[in-house]
Amino acid sequence: MPSGNQRDLYMKWCGAVKVTEENDIIQAALQEWRKGIESMLGIQVGSEANPQGLAVAFGTFQGENPLIRRVFGEETRRKVGPEGFAIRTSEDTGCIAIGAASPAGVLYGVFHLLRLIGSLKNIEGLDEVVNPVNGLRMINHWDNFDGSVERGYAGRSFFYENNQFTGELERIRDYARLMSSVGINAIAINNVNVHALETLFISKYLPEVAGIAGVFRRYGIRLFLSVNFAGPMHEGEVGTADPLDPEVRKWWQDRAAEVYAAVPDFGGFVVKADSENRPGPFTYGRDHADGANMLAEALEPFGGLVIWRCFVYNCKQDWRDRKTDRARAAYDHFKPLDGKFNDNVILQIKNGPMDFQVREPVSPLFGALERTNQVIEFQIAQEYTGQQRHVCYLVPQWKEVLDFNTYAQGEASPVKRIVDGSLWGSRHSGIAAVSNTGNDRNWTGHLLAQANLYGYGRLAWNPELTAEAIAAEWISLTFGPDPAVSGVISRILLDSWNIYESYTAPLGVGWMINPEHHYGPNVDGYEYSQWGTYHYADHKGIGVDRTVKTGTGYSAQYIGSNAERYDSVEECPDELLLFFHHVPYTHVLHSGKTVIQHIYDTHFEGAERAAELLAAWSSLKGSIREDLYIQVEERLKEQADHAKEWRDQINTYFYRKSGIGDAGQRTIY
Ligand code: GCW
């Protein structure tokens, strides 16, 4: 809670609120305002201006609020986009005014002002227009109807249990509040792996779905559903799921009409097709444009979207086959289809070509699809980054991806400009991410994993925010404004990805993990599997040759200097060397170290630095709430122990394989 002058300043403005509109979203904004002010300043917000005549006023430009009309002239209004807002401290009218073109914009503006107060910012002299950079700011749940969450590390689903909807609308409302407070405007509520009963979400279970959509609606969030491409065959209604079959098309059109009758602002379908054993158009000799466009036509009359995932690869590969390369797959499948998708189809592309590893290059599909709507897919759930038992703040990773220059359209063509639609003027664009929430009381299992959820929303809203600024906001809003506390937690967060990478995944090699659950070290766990995920370590060297001359040719999927840099063993950045090249253990990196010594050093140092995270956290004992302190302490203890296991297994494996000792003569088993 703020104190002294700061508090007086906030009290001066925030004691009264002027709102005139009855709209549900505006009323939700009003509730948030009252709650937020009450909890941060300990005062009840009234509707009468305080003795100095000051108040906060908010509403849409079209609304009846005279203060909004007076404060914002034509020029300002024109700058405010459909979901943006203007905020101004107006001494003349004695109010801080938030005006927007839509009720959702008003809600975002209110959260903005609450965030300023929660992070002790000055609220006098405010005068700005804030618009979200990305149109679609989406969360994908991998929640199953039985209540489990695929790759969930924060307890069970709050949407479903035991093949029923939980009906826990209070929890779901709190979730919607959380999400809209960071600007999320779209949520797909079921797993992209759509099993038997979830197939019926677009028919039998529509009343329950509509209930959740109603909760979301008050917070400016549109509900999406993942659908089963073989839906028409599910109950034997149609004998095929061939996208060009008229009966199949009719079946989807009828379903779309039913869905919109129940949920008029329904967002659309998310589709995982021909991927990891899911059905899709390939069965019928059709391509992904045929499949996606068929669904797009069904949704089109209602303004719905098809979000079609590009995570398509051969998951039955023979490990002996060194020419087939999973990293190539998305590009090889989708590049030839550029320009063939309907206007309301959006391709959803994972940030890397493999699968959310600790370190991968950026997917070369970014830059390759000039005439296709696209969104990037991140994974907030820490499947491969410590499963919310290790701390791993992912905002720096996401920022690296968004800032990556694709050279698709001249010198300045970063991924973020493809994703926000500006590079090619796409009709739809934005960001999606796999959720890391569950019914754990703190939402994310590891308390510090909340920073990823928060950070994802903030970054989707504005990719220019820095990882440091986002961390600072989250820390202040969660633990209060004490700078000493903030300094410690911020260091922990900002160092964490690098630390995790150093004891798990050297030089861009991935997948040295236990199969299936993906937790903990297992160097050969995926080496002889069918998943296309290999490191090819032998007694002489390690890495995947993805060069043009001697390898899989993947490096040529990049444009210009990116392709050249990755293809060249001399120029390839160290952190991706083993992703692109197979090299001897004695190969010397840009850092001056050999590959093998790099492996040893990073693993010894990584485990030490993991232990230091715990030590740093311990310094906070007594400065933050005891229960929060303990939650994190427990996880950091586990991390420190587990990092040693990683260190010893990886170092021992490579010592035994290579026969080369550690220059530092530290213990290897
Ligand atoms: O990373 C893999 C996960 C699967 C997931 C798949 C996907 C939902 O291990 O659990 O399935 O990606 O993204 O479709």
Automatic annotation (TrEMBL):
Keywords: Carbohydrate metabolism, Glycosidase, Hydrolase, Polysaccharide degradation, Xylan degradation. This is Xylan alpha-1,2-glucuronidase. GO terms for cellular component: extracellular region. One of its GO terms (biological process) is glucuronoxylan catabolic process. Residues 121-443 form the Glycosyl hydrolase family 67 catalytic domain. Its EC number is 3.2.1.131. GO terms for molecular function: alpha-glucuronidase activity; xylan alpha-1,2-glucuronosidase activity. SUPFAM superfamilies: (Trans)glycosidases, beta-N-acetylhexosaminidase-like domain. It comes from the Bacteria. It comes from Paenibacillus riograndensis. Homodimer. Residues 4-113 form the Alpha glucuronidase N-terminal domain. The keyword Hydrolase applies. It catalyses: Hydrolysis of (1->2)-alpha-D-(4-O-methyl)glucuronosyl links in the main chain of hardwood xylans. Belongs to the glycosyl hydrolase 67 family. The active site is at residues 276, 355, 383. Residues 444-665 form the Glycosyl hydrolase family 67 C-terminal domain. InterPro entries: A-glucoronidase_C_sf, GH, Glyco_hydro_67_aGlcAse, Glyco_hydro_67_aGlcAse_N, Glyco_hydro_67_C, Glyco_hydro_67_cat, Hex-like_dom2.
